[in-house]
Specification:
354 residues; 3 domains; 18 helices; 55% helix
Amino acid sequence: MTIETLASAPTSDLAVPTPIGGHIAVADVTAWVERAELYGQLARRLVRSHFIPQAYKINVPPRAGQAEIDEAYAVAEANATGAMMLGGSLGLDPLTSLQQIYIVHGRPGMYAKIKVALAQAAGHEVWDETYSAERVVVCGRRKGWADDRLVRIELTIADAERAEWAKSNPNYRKTPADMLWSRAASRVVDRIASDVLHGIQSVEDIDADETTVEARPAATSVTSAAILARAAAVKAAADDASPQTVPTAEAASEPAPTKAAPPKIRQGQRDRLAAAFDGLKVTESGERTAILAAVADRVIRSSADLTAAEADTAVDQLERVAKKPTADADAWVDQQLEHAAALDQVLRTVRRGD
């Protein structure tokens, strides 16, 4: 991969995105709330239409109850509202926002084509110098720069193979030039027009394995509907862990069948789990327990609550993830922590009887 900024002119004139950490007046917040209400009304119509991608459609599990259906609609509407509000701040209309903005590992991302379009609409130049299955070179010039000053980024199929993009995405074999162009063009725009995108990355860069958008929601987040579907199982696990009531005389007259408890986690498994967590740089005991709960798909108090079979599954997953690139491993950890938090929330809800 080659990145060049040609000519020796200073780069201090590059505009910086508007600081987000500055003072925001109450009137500004009020305006955002009012805007969210308007976008929400539009979202309620659009999520039922065929004009939006699968990522924003309503996800209702089979045989869902009314509460789950209502929750699925609310989640879809909230996601669509957020995408349209973000797109609006970038100058995109609502339908284009829903087509071009996606959430990947908890961060908003856009495809390279729309990033280039926004940069060009702002007066910046982006063009191809070389475009082939083996090598792509994309150049860009910020509005107002001299003709001899530009950013030039080169990517080759060898770069893709070295970064394992080609290994995880079959499109690098089917349309290699398009895939290389997407990454190169996105990086050019990041360098010449950061103020236009306000730091939003490309989908291609956020999602290391570049799975299809339609498959991404299930792979990167736990939907509320899916979590609620687990409530019965979570409640059963909680009931098993709660103190048993004294049986009545009638119940005691019929002895309950005994069932052997599954074998518990072994010391060797504990050691391998600890080593895998160290490899992932997950050192806080609470986070380790949360990740184990997510892998086991039930609430636990510590690793001692795991069965030997659950421990084997956890060891296998953790050791495989520890071998992945850091960005992929971190994304997996975030996924499990989100899952664990959702399980805990469901358990709290079930215990309250909500």
